[in-house]
Amino acid sequence: xxxxxxxxxxxxxxxxxxxxxxxxxxxxxxxxxxxxxxxxxxxxxxxxxxxxxxxxxxxxxxxxxxxxxxxxxxxxxxxxxxxxxxxxxxxxxxxxxxxxxxxxxxxxxxxxxxxxxxxxxxxxxxxxxxxxxxxxxxxxxxxxxxxxxxxxxxxxxxxxxxxxxxxxxxxxxxxxxxxxxxxxxxxxxxxxxxxxxxxxxxxxxxxxxxxxxxxxxxxxxxxxxxxxxxxxxxxxxxxxxx
Length: 242
Ligand code: 13P
What we know:
By secondary structure, the chain is of the alpha/beta class. It contains ten helices and eight strands. The protein has an eight-stranded parallel β-barrel with strand order 1-2-3-4-5-6-7-8, surrounded by five helices. The chain is globular, with a radius of gyration of 17 Å. It starts with a strand and ends with a helix. 39% of the residues are buried. The site of 1,3-dihydroxyacetonephosphate has 14 residues, from strand 8. 1,3-dihydroxyacetonephosphate binds at residues 8, 86, 158, 163-164, 202-205, 223-227.
């Protein structure tokens, strides 16, 4: 199949030794591993086939930005992908579309492929705001792209309510039809802006349903959270995505 699997470990695991074991178990082509910052170097050294990703970056190149990490720094550690605009960052750290747009630009200017997360919250969905939210999130980033961007932008549709840690009892993640509809909508926003984009899906993806997501027209991969922390489960997913 040759689809992309992006492992977002979020703030896991707790120890470097565990990160090393997990990185070795997840090392395969078409895989991107995004460890927490302290384990980026360790994971980077362990990976032979998988690519290294970051869970965030700051848009400035260097300077007095305590606690932040630049694209140049990440690039020097072998990072080639970065997750930006994840709902955790938007919700817990006040990241607004303007900031995310600057981060996407910084990544592109430094040859790091951005994985831009867009998606509606449960409240947005309940009030029929899904398309308005997607529109706002994507248009801001597109309007700030560096002139003549040739690099690829990966757009991840990740409905916030469908993330495993948010999914309410009795609720199902979106159907293939819903996702296909969103991808069509996002494509229409990108239009003929000249930017090269690909689309992936994220939200409670596991080995049982991965194939059904990857089979959706226009979907070229998945962003995986909880399941990427389980080596046996993630290995199954790697086989399916190959
Ligand atoms: P889950 O796969 O645990 O739902 O997490 C999705 C996610 O937030 C990936 O970035």
